[in-house]
Design goal:
The complex is a heterodimer of chains A (about 190) and B (about 375).
Chain A: E1 6-14, H1 19-31, E2 36-41, E3 51-59, E4 74-77, E5 97-101, H2 106-113, E6 118-122, H3 124-131, H4 137-149, H5 154-169, H6 171-186
Parallel strand pairs in A: 1-4, 4-5, 5-6
Antiparallel strand pairs in A: 1-3, 2-3
Helix pairs in contact in A: 1-5, 3-4, 3-6, 4-6, 5-6
Chain B: E1 7-11, H1 12-23, E2 27-30, H2 38-48, E3 55-58, H3 62-74, E4 79-83, H4 85-90, H5 95-100, E5 106-111, H6 125-129, E6 136-139, H7 143-160, E7 164-169, E8 177-181, H8 185-192, H9 219-248, E9 255-258, E10 265-269, H10 273-286, E11 291-296, E12 298-300, H11 304-310, E13 316-321, H12 331-340, E14 345-349, H13 358-366, E15 373-374
Parallel strand pairs in B: 2-3, 2-4, 4-5, 5-7, 6-7, 10-11, 10-13, 13-14, 14-15
Antiparallel strand pairs in B: 1-8, 6-12, 9-11
Helix pairs in contact in B: 1-2, 1-7, 7-9, 10-13, 11-12
């Protein structure tokens, strides 16, 4: 029996695409609403370009388990080519969501993945390239997730992103990333 | 900003680094190369940003890191370091020198596998290797405990005049972001107090020798004194934990008994796996199974009395070791058999960072016989 108070996410990507950062932004946004959280990557060697994933738990109660997420409520895929090597739909039921960075149409992708649940393709690479000028699929995916799930609030995600990055990448680039998050939130 | 008991989310590594910033030690000696931990990365940043007055000594090896700690602590400075895995293996030669010289050095350890084969992921091999070196050892289940143990550990080490290692599972705790409550800087400062060493090389009015030769006529006595000091540490741990509870409202015992009161079957374990076990215990309890967990927090000195009391009425005991002792019974399993006088089922699990799933814990509880290796 699943703990209904616990929302679990798996984020698939390749090393360097920001799966771990995505996980951190989501949990930092969730704690602003007083949630209990846990975020950790699958601990392998960190190699740029190699498939990796990160796990997120958000709950109204303290989180104690350390097992990797096995039965996610939502899966985020930052790189469509991951689906050729990893079964990203594992344990995702018909009522659960899979948000994927892809230019493909929903039907085509659903057939390819043999997935009958809530499939949400979004051209995250294209949108980030257009708005930020860089391929940063994770910001777009975060925005789309905030809209689709209601697990984190858009304003909290933006606040966390600004706090975390403004000093590092400057105001202009931070604003652009936030624009990408907002646009993805409204893109549906 | 009201920061009283502020709730934030940090990795275990950063949480320990934050505790170190609040302790603001005189000296931190570090070897900042793999297998180092995020603790040192975080602390070095605090130093660079002028948040601590600490003298940071970057050295050329872990052996030198511990040697620098020994020199620094002998001169009367409050001294810390952090290490793990091969780092601890490399500093091994000087670990018992620290305890023999009765130096209250605190080392934050992210427990990881040791070579070979090469692996830097989470298990208890490093901590178990140093278990007989005269260091006090405390284990944490999560980031909150890792943070708290750092502060408790500093005070306890200085009270006991023994070096102390705080242990948290490498990666599973050190690299996982979790909620925790931090104390105020002033609270930490007040709790650990000013450090005034009873003995120091810099006490020029009372010159002393540290680390002399001790031959057949006195070596034995010196070693016995470490043992005496270690055994006295239990009482001190209790006192320090009580004081800590006053400022934090968090109560820490030698062990944590989780739903053991009427349990027929109990798993005994240390570290982060205890969270996974608690989750499983709750689920099985809902199904009417009388199972529980005994978590060991203080590992050295080992709390035999408290363990015996906690497991008194328990029929089936399973002991999980995240370390493989070759050619002998497993470390924790032996301790528990010794403490209880009962035969236990011994299970080795999670070596080299291998994940442990609730389903496996459930099987341990439900099957009559446990596998020797949870592979």
């Amino acid at each position: 029996m699943k703990n209904k108070n616990k929302y679990e996410i798996i984020i698939h990507g390749r090393g360097g695409q920001g799966a771990k950062t995505t996980a951190e932004i989501l949990v930092q946004a969730a704690i602003l609403k007083g949630k209990f959280v846990q975020a950790f990557p699958n601990f392998g060697p960190e190699r740029t370009g190699a498939p990796m994933c990160a796990f997120v738990r958000i709950s109204n109660e303290p989180i104690r388990t350390r097992e990797p997420v096995v039965d996610p409520d939502c899966v985020l895929v930052l790189d469509e080519t991951i689906t050729d090597v990893i079964d990203v739909t594992k344990n995702v039921t018909d009522t659960e969501a899979l948000i994927i960075n892809s230019t493909k149409e929903k039907q085509e992708l659903a057939k390819k993945l043999k997935f009958e649940g809530n499939l949400i393709p979004i051209d995250a690479s294209g949108m980030s390239q257009e708005i930020i000028g860089e391929n940063r699929p994770n910001t777009v995916i975060i925005g789309r997730f905030a809209f689709a799930s209601h697990i984190v609030e858009l304003e909290d995600v933006i606040k966390v992103f600004r706090n975390k990055y403004e000093n590092k990448i400057g105001k202009e680039k931070t604003d652009k990333n936030i624009k990408a998050i907002e646009k993805a939130f409204r893109h549906h | 900003m009201n920061t009283k008991n502020k709730k934030i989310a940090l990795t275990g590594g950063y949480a320990v680094g934050e505790a170190m910033r609040q302790i603001n030690p005189d000296v931190v000696a570090m070897y900042p190369i793999t297998p180092q931990t995020p603790i040192i990365e975080y602390f070095a940043k605090q130093k660079a940003n002028g948040k601590v007055k600490t003298e940071v000594v970057t050295v050329e090896s872990e052996h030198s890191a511990m040697s620098a700690c020994i020199g620094s602590s002998a001169s009367g400075a409050r001294t810390l370091t952090a290490s793990s895995s091969q780092g601890i293996m490399y500093m091994f030669e000087v670990l018992p020198v620290a305890s023999s010289m009765r130096l209250p050095i605190l080392m934050a350890v992210s427990n990881r596998a040791i070579s070979g084969p090469i692996n830097i992921h989470g298990d208890h091999s490093d901590a178990m290797a140093m278990r007989d070196t005269g260091w006090i050892q405390i284990f944490a289940e999560n980031t909150q405990e890792a943070y708290d143990n750092t502060i408790i550990g500093m005070k306890l080490a200085e009270k006991a005049l023994l070096p102390l290692a705080t242990n948290m599972d490498g990666f599973f705790v050190s690299h996982s972001v979790e909620n925790l409550e931090l104390l105020e800087d002033e609270e930490v400062k007040g709790f650990i107090g000013e450090y005034s060493p009873k003995q120091s090389l810099f006490d020029f009015d009372n010159p002393k020798t540290f680390g002399p030769v001790a031959l057949q006529n006195s070596y034995f006595e010196f070693r016995k004194q470490i043992q005496d000091a270690m055994l006295k540490t239990s009482k001190m741990f209790e006192e320090v934990a009580e004081e800590f509870e006053k400022i934090s409202k968090r109560k820490y015992g030698f062990v944590e008994e989780y739903r053991t009161e009427d349990a027929g079957k109990v798993i005994v374990a240390m570290g982060s796996v205890c969270g996974t076990i608690k989750e499983t215990v709750d689920r099985l309890r809902d199904e009417g199974k009388n199972v529980g967990l005994l978590k060991i927090r203080l590992f050295r000195p080992f709390p035999y009395k408290q363990v015996a009391k906690a497991l008194k009425g328990v029929q089936d005991i399973i002991v999980m070791d995240r370390n493989l002792a070759f050619g002998t019974k497993q470390v924790l399993a032996s301790e528990i058999e010794h403490a209880t006088g009962k035969k236990v089922q011994s299970v080795v699990y999670g070596l080299g960072g291998r994940d442990v799933f609730e389903k496996q814990i459930e099987e341990l509880f439900l099957e009559e016989k446990s596998p020797e290796y949870l592979m």
